[in-house]
Each structure stands twice: as C-alpha cells, then as structure tokens.
Design goal:
- It contains 6 helices and 35 strands.
- The protein is mainly β.
- Mean pLDDT is about 90; it is low at about 1-45 and about 50-55.
- It is an enzyme of class 1 (oxidoreductase).
- Its EC number is 1.10.3.2.
- Keywords: Apoplast, Copper, Lignin degradation, Metal-binding, Oxidoreductase, Repeat, Secreted.
C-alpha cells in the first residue's frame, strides 16, 4: 500500500471532512457501520483517501449567481431603496480555495448599468472578467447578464468584490474569502472560528444623485451620514438601541480571525476593539509577519486579517470604526460601532465596555501602522521583490481645478496623475486594444511630470490639466517601479491607489518630495509588504515595484471614489509574452455590448 494512503488512513479522526463551505461533506468510515472483513474496511477507506488526495491536487469549479436588485433598507431612522446583490447589504460572501475556478453569473434586474470587479484577484490572462466599466468591458445593461469566469491563482486570504461603475459600490459590495488548498495550513495558529467584518459608509441620500449633482456643479460631493460595520451604524448611532448592529459572539480563551474589509467610498478608517489586542497576519490576501497592535488603519479597497483572543472577563465590548484624515478637508466624523459579546455574559444588556477612537488627524498612529507591516517572506511564501528596474516611473497625484463656464464657481475640481485628467472612453480599452479599434486611446501617458514644481508646497496657481484617454504601455515581464508623489495644488491629502491585475511591493515611503538621489537608500527590498492598494501619505510619497507578468489592460486609480470620478486614474497596457501561457485569452462570447 502507498505510504500516502497509509498516512491518509491514519489521519481520519472525525466523522466528516469538510471539503469547503459550499460543498458536500465527504463521509469517512468512522461514521459508518464497520464491515467485518479487512478488505471491506480498507476498500472504502482507500477510496475516501484517493478522493481526498485528488481534491487536494485538482481544484474545483464553484458556481455563484448574483442577482442585482433594488431593496428598501432602513438606517438612521430613514428608509431608501438601494442597489444590492441578492437583496443583501453587504452582499454575499464568495468562498473559494486557492486554485479554484470561479463562475459568477451576474443578472442585472435593476434599472442601472452595472459591472462587478473582483478586487485584488490577479485575473491572470483573464482581463475580460476584471470588471471596470469601459476599461475591460461594457456595462451589463438592465435585463442582461454576464458570466464572470476566473481562476484564483497563487492567492489565499481576504479580498472583496464590488460594482465598478459610478458610485454603485456604495451598496454593491461583499467579501471574497480564499481558503488555502486542502491540506495546507495557515502559517499561524489556526483560529477557533472566523468572521467577515465589512466596513463602509451610509448616505441617507441616493449616492448617484450625490455625485451627479457635484459633477454638474464642479464641486465636491456631500459626505456620508455614518460609517458602518457589516451594513449597520451600530448601537451608538443616532436612532439606535443597544441591541442594534453587528454582534460578534466569542468564548473565553478562544482565538478568532477577523477578515476586515474597507468597502467605504471615500474614507480611510481606523478600527479598534475595546480591551482587546489585534495581531495582523495578512493584508490584501498576502501573509505578513505577525504584527501586534491595538488599532488598524485600512484604506478603501484594502483588507486586513487579524487574530483576536477572547481574554477578557465576561461582558460586551465595543468595536469602532472611525475616519482618518490629516488634511483640512470635510469628512464624515460619525463613528460606526458593533459589539463583541462573550458567551457567558448573563444578559444581552450587560455593561458595555467602550473604546475611544483615535483623533481624526492621528498621523503618527497611521504612519506607525503602515510602516510596521512586512511580508512573511518564508520559504513557502517568498517576497519576490524585483531587484532591478526596467521602467522607472514618477507619477504626481492629486486634485486641481480647471476652468468651467457652467460650474458654480467658474471652475471644476479635477483629479490628475502627471497633470493628466483621465477621460473615460465609450468603447472599452481592452476591446479597442484586442481588435485594434483606432481613436479610443493613445499610448502617450507621461512617465514623468510634464511640469516640475515643489509638489508638496502650494504649487502653481493656474496649472490646468491635460484631458485624454492616455495609457502607458509595458512589455511583458518588465520590472516596474512607480513613485507615487502627493501634490498640494489645492491641498495635500492621502490617496489609496489601487492597481488592477497585479500585486506590488511597497518598497519605500516618506514625507515631503521624493529625492531620486537619497530616497532609494531607504528602500526595503527584502521583505516589504505586498498589496494591491496602498495609501500614499498626505504630503508624501510611496514607492512600489511590480513585475508586468499579466498581459491585458489594467486600471490604476485612487480608491476614493470621488477622486476617481474627477479623473485621478490611468491605464497600463501590458503586451502579450511569447508563449500561449503568456497571452491574453480571447474574449467570451457573452461579453456585454455598449
């Protein structure tokens, strides 16, 4: 008998082996009546083990159906109709294992055009399914559907999905949980249980109306009315009882893993739990060296997995989510709350231990957290940081103003990267690239700022931006370094920059203007944190590196939705490689039409 089978037979200790959260559990002989003959015993055991080994080697296909529908929701004593997936807010959690093929049929039963982006999923060679409207696909029109089809390759952890057109992701979002391959443990002690915690924002007004009015007037939009935890403002909000909101039930001395997601539109968020420490073990579906803290900073689009041990006395403890903003700008200052509840607490109305959120402008706390994260960089999970650079890019990012005769102040607020305000095309760039459709985009996105100035100072007074649908082209497998430099034309502020199609290494960050002669000496090329979204510090810079090993058309933009609406975005076009395994697949037959 094969040694692997003997090992498998000796490891069956429970009645069932759970294949996954949405698959049938496989019965193991311990739960059956025992046969009398030895071969009758061994044959079913061997069959079970062969099946388990096959499952651990061969991934499975998981099927989901997302019905996009309107639903009435009441928050803050006010009811409104919101766009949802399957009538849920937040939407359903998508579960998969590393290596699985995922099929999600999105059926649009609402009156809005819609797309879904699988935020952080690499989409190796499958850019048709990435989701940003007019970048990789036309929207799914009302009454239509589209089958997203992608494989989770080399990733495990927590990501998110969300609508990627206009401001619909305010309510159309949910978690992606990627479990390790069968038989592969976490690189940290296994938690007793896990929970998804989605942080967000809530507007009493319709968010599409909010941004449309702001764009028409050329000014900033109204801020949200509350922050939320799993869709609820919580027990400390206006018009709430002590029982309202999300409850996290725990048992004494057990350790739990929280998969925390910032699905908010426009706010960086602090997260705390009263009386409890947090150990960060993963960010953006990449394992980290364990980092102990009592507070998290999570920008829109980022995810953080933490371990929490229930080591306090019986009772109820407050969870809080509050904004971080260290610029002189308006922000929703409402704190969203939830409750951690010990199982041996006598009453649901037992005393609640409160938590004091940090100051809104707590820059030292935010900087310490961001600078403390490191990749695990183990033998199993190495940090393959590009040590040399083929394309060195310097991108200034920020907001400015352009003349606008019809706007309320005679000017329009615009977003800019290298003084270029991105104009969304009417034909998706990926289709234009694949079918060689002329006139959709130009390959002249500047590698460096066309105007040099004191970037973190006040800046030029009358610096108008260029408008256009410009892309930057990269050869396959090129190593790329991008310096992301904040600017202060209106005001310096932080920017959560998200890159589709890739993870990148955050090799450096600093305050003030990047200095090409001295700043690189501070780079970490050994174990920098690996992410898909990074917060560029207010009045500072961040250096990222990645390898362009994924052919296609890939969006890079600020994940503050207001900045994306204003044009703070650009596109990388990555060429095919020489092999079929390095080539973009053909478009699907049901790709939506504009």
């Amino acid at each position: 008998m094969q040694p692997g089978i003997l090992h498998c037979l000796g490891s069956q200790a429970s009645s069932f082996v759970l294949v996954s959260s949405d698959q049938v559990a496989l019965p193991v002989p311990g739960s059956m009546a025992m046969p009398r003959r030895l071969d009758q015993l061994l044959l079913p055991l061997m069959a079970s083990c062969f099946l388990l080994q096959a499952l651990s080697v061969h991934a499975i296909t998981r099927h989901y159906k997302f019905n996009v529908v309107m639903r009435n929701m009441t928050r803050l004593c006010s009811t409104k109709s919101i766009l949802t997936v399957n009538g849920k807010f937040p939407g359903p959690t998508l579960y998969a294992r590393e290596g699985d093929n995922v099929l999600v049929k999105v059926v649009n039963q609402a009156s809005h055009n819609v797309t879904i982006h699988w935020h952080g999923v690499r989409q190796i060679r499958t850019g048709w399914y990435d989701g940003p409207a007019y970048i990789t696909q036309c929207p799914i029109q009302p009454g239509s559907s589209f089958l997203y089809n992608f494989t989770v390759t080399g990733q495990r952890g927590t990501l998110l999905w969300h609508a990627h057109i206009n401001w619909l992701r305010a309510t159309v979002h949910g978690a992606i949980v990627i479990l390790p391959k069968l038989g592969v443990p976490y690189p940290f002690p296994a938690p007793h249980k896990e929970a998804v915690v989605v942080l967000g924002e809530w507007w009493k007004a319709d968010t599409e109306t909010v941004i449309n009015q702001a764009m028409q007037l050329g000014v900033g939009p109204n801020i949200s009315d509350s922050h939320t935890i799993n869709g609820h403002p919580g027990p400390m909000s206006d018009c709430a009882s002590s029982q309202d909101g999300f409850n996290l039930d725990v048992e004494n001395d057990k350790t739990y893993m929280l998969r925390i997601i910032n699905a908010g539109l426009n706010d960086d968020l602090f997260f705390k739990i009263a009386g409890h420490g947090l150990t960060v073990v993963e960010v953006d579906a990449v394992y980290t060296k364990p980092y102990k803290t009592d507070i998290l900073l999570i920008t829109p689009g980022q995810t953080t997995n933490v371990l929490v041990t229930a080591d306090q006395s019986a009772g109820r403890y407050l969870l809080s989510v509050s904004p971080f903003l260290d610029a002189p700008l308006q922000v929703d200052n409402k704190t969203g709350t939830a409750t951690l509840h010990y199982a041996n607490t006598v009453s649901a109305t037992a005393r609640l231990t409160l938590v004091k959120p940090p100051p809104q402008n707590a820059t030292p706390i935010a900087s310490k957290f961001s600078e403390s994260l490191r990749s695990l960089n183990s033998k199993e999970y190495p940090a393959n940081v590009p040590q040399t650079v083929d394309h060195s890019l310097f991108f200034t990012i920020g907001v400015g103003v352009n003349p606008c005769a019809n706007c309320i102040n005679g000017t329009r607020v615009v977003g800019t990267i290298n003084n270029s305000t991105f104009v969304m095309p009417s034909t998706p760039i990926l289709q234009a690239r694949y079918y060689s459709i002329p006139g959709v985009f130009t390959e002249d996105f500047p590698a460096t700022p066309p105007h040099k100035f004191n970037y973190t100072g006040s800046g030029p007074k009358n610096l108008q931006t260029m408008k256009g649908t410009r892309v930057y082209r990269l050869p396959y497998n090129a190593s790329v370094q991008v310096i992301l430099q904040d600017t202060g034309i209106i005001s310096t502020e932080s920017h959560p920059i998200h890159l589709h199609g890739f993870n990148f290494f955050v090799v450096g960050r600093g305050v003030g203007n990047y200095n090409p002669k001295t700043s690189p000496s501070t780079f970490n090329l050994i174990d920098p944190v690996e992410r898909n979204t990074i917060g560029v510090p207010t009045g500072g810079w961040t250096a990222i590196r990645f390898r362009a090993d994924n052919p296609g058309v890939w969006f890079m933009h600020c994940h503050f939705e207001v900045h994306t609406s204003w044009g703070l975005k650009m596109v990388f076009v990555v060429d095919n490689g020489k092999r079929p395994s390095e080539t973009l697949i053909p478009p699907p037959k049901d790709l939506p039409q504009c």
